[in-house]
Amino acid sequence: MQYRIIGSTMPAVETILNRGESMYTQSGGMAWMSQGVEMTTSTKGGVLKGLGRKMFAGESMFMATYTAVMDNATVAFASTVAGEIVPIDLAQHQGLICQKGAFLCATPGVQMNMTFTKKFSAGLFGGEGFILQQAAGNGLLFLEIDGDRVEKTLAPGEVLYVDTGNLVAFDPTVQYEIQMIKGVKNIFFGGEGLFNTKLTGPGKVILQTQNFNEFASRILAMMPRS
After folding, report:
1. For residue 217, how many C-alpha atoms fall within 13 Å in the half-sphere facing its CB?
2. Residue 152 forms beta bridges with which residues?
3. Which of 144, 25, 8 is nearest to 76 (CA)?
4. Tens of pLDDT along 26-54?
5. What is the C-alpha R_g of the chain?
6. Residue 88 has pLDDT above 90, yes or no
7. Rounded CA gap, 16 and 4, in Å?
8. Which of 32, 71, 145, 225 is in the most buried spot, having the most CB atoms within 10 Å?
9. CB atoms < 10 A from the CB of 222, how many?
10. 165 pLDDT exceeds 90?
11. Short-list 61, 58, 70, CA closest to 33
């Protein structure tokens, strides 16, 4: 399979498939495709897995698989907000932990499974951080980045504090937990909420410069109310 990233502000990934090759995405995730591509829809892992994906990860219960029935067929998947699309070759990783909403599309050898943070406090107070997705297997995974991508490689024991909405993905070797912000004034007047995400190395971390949930809440606050 070959691919190319098209566009910069609102990018799409266009995949070029030979006969028998395929890609899968959430239901409704396809932007355009050529002739010679067949679509099949399934829960990809069973009804319970599909329901869990919808209820906990906020994603579609069904996954759509696009398979080429001729060589050089194309199918494209577009980002939903301004940002970047990042290809990840899982053959070079021992899995990847992703924030819900980061998954765009993948080849069939990639499995996306829900995973819970080890500490309950991270789920209770971490907002988006409670339900994460673990990418495993062998193949290409495409992640959707809100805004610009920032990558950091943490040394053993090195700590990085991140607003949860700016976290995209990290290696399984990175420890993830939620910590309360210290200081009464910081909590009430700092404007950053009560908690931050604490990441401890070793491992690679992918961040995004835009917190879309925060952006959406600001837009909502400007909407007229009856």
Report:
1. 6
2. 205
3. 25
4. 877 899 999 999 999 987 655 555 455 44
5. 19
6. yes
7. 8
8. 145
9. 6
10. no
11. 70
Asked whether the CA dihedral 75, 80, 81, 86 is positive or negative, the reply is: negative
Task: List the one residue out of 61, 65, 64, 63 whose CA is nearest residue 49.
Answer: 61
Least confident of 47-51, 90-94, 100-104, 210-214: 47-51
Read off the tokens for 75.
């199918």
Backbone angles phi, psi at 169, to 5 degrees: -160, 160
3-state secondary structure of 13: strand
Record the tokens describing residue 176, joined without a space: 């993830």
Does residue 107 have a pLDDT over 90? yes
Cα separation values, 129 from 67, 72, 142, 201, 220, Å: 33, 39, 20, 18, 22
Q: Do 106 and 140 contact (CB within 8 A), yes or no?
A: yes
φ, ψ dihedrals at 220, nearest 5°? -60, -35
In 3-state terms, what secondary structure has residue 132? strand
Q: Report yes or no: 167 and 99 within 8 Å, Cβ to Cβ.
A: yes
pLDDT digits (tens, 9 = 90+) for 116-163: 655 545 444 444 445 788 999 999 999 999 999 999 999 999 999 998
Dist CA 68 CA 16 (whole Å): 9
Nearest to 102 by CA among 86, 124, 117, 91: 86
User: Is residue 98 within 8 Å of 87, Cβ to Cβ?
Assistant: no
What does the alpha-carbon distance between residue 173 and residue 183 come to, in Å, rounded to a whole number? 30
Residue 111 β-bridge partners: 136
- In this structure, are residues 63 and 27 in contact, taking their beta carbons and an 8 Å threshold? yes
